[in-house]
Amino acid sequence: MRRHLLTVSVHLVSVxxxxxxxxxxxxxxxxxxxxxxxxxxxxxxxxxxxxERMGFNDPIPLQYLRFLSxxxxxxxxxxxxxxxxxxxIILERLPATLELAFAGMGIALAVAVPFGILSALxxxxxxxxxxxxxxxxxxxxPNFWVGIVGILVFSVKLRLLPTxxxxxxxxxxxxxxxxxxxxxxxxxxxxxxxxLEVISQDYVRTxxxxxxxxxxxxxxxxxxxxxxxxxxxxxxxxxxxxGGAVVIETVFAWPGVGRLILQxxxxxxxxxxxxxxxxxxxxFVGANLCVDLMYRYLDPRIxxx
Amino acid sequence: xxxxxxxxxxxxxxxxxxxxSHRAAMLGALIVSLVMLASIFAPWLAPQDPLALDPGRxxxxxxxxxxxxxxxxxxxxxxxxxxxxxLLYGSRISMLVGLCAVSISATIGILLGLISGFYGxxxxxxxxxxxxxxxxxxxxxLVISIVAAVGTGFGTIIIVFGVAGxxxxxxxxxxxxxxxxxxxxxEAAQALGGSSIRIVLRHVLPNVLTxxxxxxxxxxxxxxxxxxxxxxxxxxVPPPTPTWGRMLSDGRAYLxxxxxxxxxxxxxxxxxxxxxNMLGDGLRDALDPRLELSGK
Lengths: 305, 296
Description:
The complex is a heterodimer of chains A (305) and B (296). With 305 residues, chain A is mainly alpha-helical. Chain A is 79% helix and 0% strand.
C-alpha cells in the first residue's frame, strides 16, 4: 500500500508538470499579452517597457520556470480584467461549481443505479426496454439541450422550478439534472451490464442455493461487485462534469468557475483562463487519485495483488 | 477480444447479416444516411436562403400553426431567417466536424498506440505520459482553452477536436497490441524474420481496426455534441454560417413565445446523435460484443 502510494504520487507530480507545460504553451499560443494590457494607442516605448518589466523578453524556459514557481505557490498572475490575483477570483467561484458538479453526480447516481439494477433483474421486460431506451436518449442529448427543455417544461409551462440563479435547493434541481444527464445514462448502462455479469457468477448461484432472499443476494453479494467498475467511470466523468459546467452555468446563469472561464475567454483575459483551467485540471487529477485509492479499498483482489 | 485474423475474424457477410437484423442499428443507419444526404444536398433542398434575413417576417410559426406558411415550413428565427434552410445547412457543419475530427484523432491514436504497444521502452512511457497529461484536462476545458488561444474557425475547430481526441484510440490500440504481441501468429511472423513494420501492418493493424471502427463511430456522436456545445457558447465556427448549437442558443431567448426557434435545432442534434449512437451500438453488437468503451 505504501509503495503504491509512492508510485501514485510520482505519477501525480509528473502529470501535474505536464499540465503546467501545456497551460504555459497555451498562454504563449494566445499571442502577445502585452498588447492586451495596454491601451491600443500605447507607444512603442511603453510596450517595450512593460515587456521588460513583465519578463517577456527573457528566454522561454526561464519564463516557464517563473510560471511554474508561481503556480506552486498558487500565484497565477493578475487577471487583466479584474486587476486582482487570478487565484482569488477563482477560489471565490469554485464552491458554486463544485456544488453543481456534486449535484449532477448525486442526481445521476440516485436515479441510474436503482434503474440499472431493476433493468438487469428484469431483463427483457418492458421496464428494461424503457430504461435502456431512456439511457440511449440520455447519451444522445447535449446537456444544454436537456437544460433548455427542462426550463421550457418545468419553468415556462408548469411554473414549478426557477429558471436561473443559485441559492435555494429548487434552483439546484434543473442544472444538476441537465449536467448529470449524460452520466445518468452511462451509469444506468454500466450498472445493468455489471449486474448481468455478476448475477450469472458461481457465488451468486451459491447464495441462491443457500436459500437467501433475492434482496439479500442483490444487495449483499451482487451489487458490491457490480459497482466496482462504476467507481472508475465516475472518477473519469468528474472531468466531464467540470467541463460541462461551462455550458450549464451559462444556461442557468450559475455563478461558478465555468461562466468565469467563458467570460474571461471573451474578454481575452488569458491569465484568468489558464489559471482556472489549470486548477480544474488539478482538481480532476486529485479526484482520480481518490478513485484509485477507493478502488483498492473496494476490490480486495487488487489490494492484495 | 484480439484473435487470429485468419481463423475467427468475422467474415464480412456474416457481420453484415448480423447488422441488418439489428433493428436499432438499421434505424440508426437510416437516420445517419438521411442527415448525410441533407447535408450534401442542402442547396437543393433548402426552400430559402439560410442567410437571408427580413425583420418583417421574424418569429413566424411553423406551417401547421395559425400564421404559418409553406414558404417557411418550420417557421423563422428572431431575424426572420428560414429555420428549415438553416437546419439543412447546419447539418453540414455537424457532420463534417464529426467525421473529419474523428478521422484525425483515430489516425493519430492508431499510430501512437501501435508505436507504444509494439516497441515499448522509453517511447511507450513518453506516449503514456502524454496521454495522462491530456486526460488530466477535462476535454471540454482543453478545447475551450485552445480555442481561446488560437481563435475559432471551421478548420481550427476540426483540428482542435481532432488533435485533442487521440488518447482514447491510442489506449485502445495499445491494449490490443499488448494482448497480441505474445500470440502465436505474431511470434511466428517474427520467427520467420518479418520486419517490425511488416508485422505491424500485416498482422497487428487488421486486428486493431475492428474496435477502432466501433469506437470511431460512437465518437462521431460525442464530437457532434461537443461541437454543438461550443457553438452554443459562441466558440465554434463564427457567424453567419448556420450551426445547430448557435441556432439553439439564439432561440433560447424566445422560449416563452416562439418555442420552435430553439426546439427544432435541439431535436436535430438529438436525432442525429441518437442515429449515430444506435449505429455504433449495432456495430459493436455485430463485430465485437465484449468491447468495453466506457469512460474515456
